[in-house]
Each structure stands twice: as structure tokens, then as C-alpha cells.
């Protein structure tokens, strides 16, 4: 990453451009680290018996908050078996605890049923969330594929009267992760 040190901008426009360049470089490094964590998780899932057909990357979902408000949200990895999403995985290089609430809202809103499990991971540590009970465990363990087939998972919709609140929470997280250089 090249940063011009001890450079005094000649104008406000140049200052804005220098700041924009720095932010873009930071975003690129952040995206590269997420890609690395994704690759680690994909390798781990394959070792647990999942195939590439079971794994979906960077899936976007349109969420309608109101007639005038809609947005696209996504998650890094989905595990799908028998046409149902069982796990949603968020890869982040820092502050995995802060993404727990995002994952709860995401898993409650994006499918017609609640995605049963979520994980937030930095590739070394993870937090596994049971969406139906709200229980959070500090672990990187995802069940083997054959164990998931044997379990009796429930695919229940989230109560419709609570959906608007979850959509707003998801919308707020989406605004936070919006590119800071978009307006530069």
C-alpha cells in the first residue's frame, strides 16, 4: 500500500482524493482478508463432508422494508441441503461479536423460514448461533454433513408481527457496512 507521507495537499480537492485513495486501499485489504477467511471455511466444510454443490458464496437477497425502502443484503457463505439453507456464515477479520445481531436478523428475514444456524468467524475463532433458541457458543465446530441429515431440523417462519423490526436492524447493519468512499 503506497501512502504519500508528509504530503500537504495543495487543495481541498487533492485532500479529498488522498483520503479517498487511503480508504479504497483499506477496503481492498479488508476484502482480501474476507476472501482468505472464506477459503479457510470452504476447506473446513469440504473436510466435514460438504460438497461445492452444498456451498453458496456471497448470496444477495433483496429485503423490502417498506414500499419506498428496499436494499440488497448478503452473507459470505450459505450451506444448503435438500433445497433448504441450514447455515449462514459471516466471515470478518475483526470483532466477530459485533456481527451476531446482524446474523440473527439476516437468518430471520431472508428466507420464508428462519435459517436454523449462523456462524460468525475470523477463521480462527467462531461463534455458532442457534437462531431458533438464540443460544450462542464459542466454537468453530459445524456438524458433519451426514450428522445434519440425521438431525430433525425445523424450518419455522419468524413471527410476521416481529419481521419489520428485524428488517430495520438488517437495514441499519447494511448502512454501516456501506462503502465509505461512495460519496467521495
Task: Tell me about this structure.
Pfam families: HSDR_N_2. InterPro entries: HSDR_N. By secondary structure, the chain is of the alpha+beta class. The chain has one domain: Alpha-Beta Complex (tt1808, chain A), CATH 3.90.1570.30. Helix content is 36%, strand content 23%. It is built from four helices and six strands. A six-stranded mixed beta sheet has the order 1-2-3-4-5-6, sandwiched between helices. Strand 4 and strand 5 form a beta hairpin. The relative contact order is 0.14. The C terminus is likely disordered.
Q: Which terms summarize this structure?
A:
4 helices, Type I restriction enzyme R protein N-terminal domain-containing protein, six-stranded mixed sheet, tt1808, chain A, HSDR_N, alpha+beta, single chain, 184 residues
The secondary-structure element order is HEEEHEEEHH
Q: What is the helix content?
A: 25-40%
Work out the number of β strands.
Answer: 6
Please state roughly what percent of the residues sit in beta strands, choosing from under 5%, 5-15%, 15-25%, 25-35%, 35-45% or over 45%.
15-25%
Distance between the termini: 20 Å
User: What order do the strands of the largest sheet run in, or round the barrel if closed?
Assistant: 1-2-3-4-5-6
CATH topology heading: tt1808, chain A
Q: How many discrete domains?
A: 1
**The biggest beta sheet, please?**
6 strands, mixed
Query: DSSP helix count?
Result: 4
> How would you describe the shape?
globular
Q: Tell me which CATH architecture applies here.
A: Alpha-Beta Complex
Tell me the radius of gyration.
19 Å
InterPro entries: HSDR_N
Protein name: Type I restriction enzyme R protein N-terminal domain-containing protein
Organism: Thermodesulfovibrio aggregans
Domain Type I restriction enzyme R protein N-terminal: 40-143
Amino acid at each position: 500500500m503506497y501512502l504519500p507521507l508528509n504530503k500537504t495537499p495543495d487543495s481541498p480537492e487533492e485532500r479529498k482524493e488522498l483520503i479517498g485513495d487511503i480508504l479504497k486501499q483499506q477496503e481492498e485489504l479488508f476484502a482480501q482478508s474476507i476472501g482468505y477467511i472464506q477459503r479457510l471455511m470452504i476447506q473446513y466444510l469440504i473436510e466435514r463432508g460438504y460438497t461445492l454443490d452444498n456451498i453458496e458464496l456471497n448470496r444477495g437477497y433483496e429485503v423490502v422494508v417498506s414500499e419506498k425502502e428496499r436494499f440488497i443484503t448478503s452473507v459470505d457463505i450459505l450451506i444448503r441441503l435438500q433445497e433448504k439453507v441450514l447455515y449462514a456464515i459471516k466471515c470478518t477479520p475483526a470483532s466477530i461479536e459485533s456481527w451476531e445481531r446482524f446474523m440473527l436478523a439476516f437468518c430471520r428475514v431472508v428466507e420464508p423460514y428462519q435459517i436454523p444456524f449462523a456462524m460468525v468467524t475470523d477463521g480462527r475463532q467462531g461463534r455458532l448461533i442457534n437462531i431458533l433458541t438464540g443460544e450462542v457458543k464459542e466454537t468453530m465446530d459445524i456438524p458433519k454433513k451426514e450428522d445434519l441429515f440425521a438431525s430433525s431440523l425445523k424450518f419455522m417462519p419468524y413471527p410476521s408481527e416481529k419481521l419489520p423490526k428485524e428488517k430495520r436492524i438488517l437495514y441499519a447493519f447494511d448502512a454501516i457496512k456501506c462503502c465509505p468512499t461512495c460519496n467521495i
